[in-house]
Amino acid sequence: MADYFVSLTIWAAVYSLFALGLNLQWGFAGLINFGHVAFMTLGAYTTALLTLQGVPLILAVLAGMTIAAGLGLLIGISTLRLREDYLAIVTIGGSELIRLIVLNEEQITKGAFGIQRYPLPLDITPNPLEKILLILVFTIVSIYALWQLWKSIQREWQDSENIVGKSYKPRSQKTLLICGILTAIVIIALYLNGIISLAEYDYKDGLMVFVLVVLAIIYSALEFLGHSPWGRILKAIREDETIPKVLGKNVFWYKLQAFMLGGAIAGLAGSFFAWQLTTIYPTNFEPILTFTAWIIVILGGSGSNAGTLLGAIIYWTYDSLTRFALPLLPFFTNDSQLGSFRIMVIGLILMILMRSRPQGILGKKEELTLGR
Question: Is the pTM of this model over 0.85?
Fold first, then answer.
């Protein structure tokens, strides 16, 4: 069970990275991307293939991010000057094109046979001092996560207090408080489980610490960019790109930067995705991954990096609970029924959330003009 919760922590962190890339593209710049999984595919395959050739892990990851950003450049140059619906269509087509290439190309990607036995990070036997260091780093990251959760909930609570004459405010605050408390409990539980697992070190324990450190760095960088003039220009473009144009801003260039950077982050998530699976196949990169990222972004709040992390934690908590609880019910006779029901329930949760907090858990009500 301890190993399962370590794996759950890794998956939540990987999907947080993946969704942060989408949130930068959609939540900040208003760019519709329905083929986000293509960037993850390139990152995963590039990292695995290069490390098999003896390339150091860090360089392989950077290469995967660069190639993913290159895909964003190709798509962006051809579509970002057009209406957003063209971008949505092209990203879907591009995603399927990448998947079909890795499925049918056998000399490089090995086709349907996939890629196995590539090098993995932190696949070591640590001494006691190294274990203590890993536990210390894990503790710092966990405290940072709780601190950021507290700051985000406090900020959204204050924002809701500043909204006067709105009937939705008490219900919205109640939803925010409940989600915050439950998420804090989950983070603490995963932290305690992680400490126990690190004492009995396994490869996945090292990967857990590694991905959490990288996630904290990427999150902090995106928070800095989001509150910088660059991030404010992106939000202005999202709301009405005419105004930044009038102010002399190169709207196309800012869109392209956001699309490429979001793709690079998804490519980074692909590297960890490959390391978590330890073997990758083309079937691992189905379109459902893109829409899982959309669920996470909408659930947490579009345009909120903290909301994206919160959405990932809630999504994977739900996934874990239903994976164990629903099979105990006598209503399901096969796995297909169970899978369909789980999708129906997450849809119902989103509908309820949209009624109580249409901006998402940590989204901003005043930013619901997005897409007008």
Answer: yes
Half-sphere exposure of 241 (CA within 13 A, CB side): 19
Please answer whether residues 65 and 73 qualify as being in contact, where contact means their C-beta atoms are separated by less than 8 angstroms. Answer: no
Rounded to whole angstroms, the maximal C-alpha distance in the chain is: 64
Residue 333: Cβ-neighbour burial (10 angstroms; 0-12, 13-18, 19+)? exposed
Average pLDDT over residues 198-209: 91
Secondary structure class of 108 (helix, strand, coil): coil
Alpha-carbon distances of 214 from 16, 17, 208, rounded to whole Å = 11, 9, 10
Q: What is the pLDDT of residues 122-164, one digit of tens each?
A: 888 888 999 999 999 999 999 999 998 888 888 777 766 665 4
Q: What is the pLDDT of residue 366?
A: 62
| CA 235 – CA 71 distance, rounded (Å) | 23
CA 355/CA 315 separation, integer angstroms? 18
Q: How would you class 331 by CB atoms within 10 Å of its CB: exposed for 0-12, middle for 13-18, buried for 19 or more?
A: exposed
Listed residue (245, 206, 254) closest to 80, CA to CA: 254
Cα distance between residue 58 and residue 47, in whole Å? 9
Q: Where is 66: in which H helix or E strand?
A: helix 57-79
Q: What is d(CA 100, CA 104) in angstroms, rounded to the nearest whole number?
A: 6
Q: How far apart are CA 101 and CA 174, in angstroms?
A: 48
Transcribe 197-247 into DSSP letters: HHHT--HHHHHHHHHHHHHHHHHHHHHHHHTSHHHHHHHHHHHHTHHHHHT
Q: Is 354 left (phi over 0), alpha (psi -120 to 50) or beta?
A: alpha
Domain boundaries, the chain: 2-367
Domain at 2-367: CATH code: 1.10.3470
Angstrom distance (rounded) from CA 209 to CA 318: 22
Q: Which amino acid is at 35?
A: G
251-277 confidence digits (pLDDT tens): 999 999 999 999 999 999 999 999 999
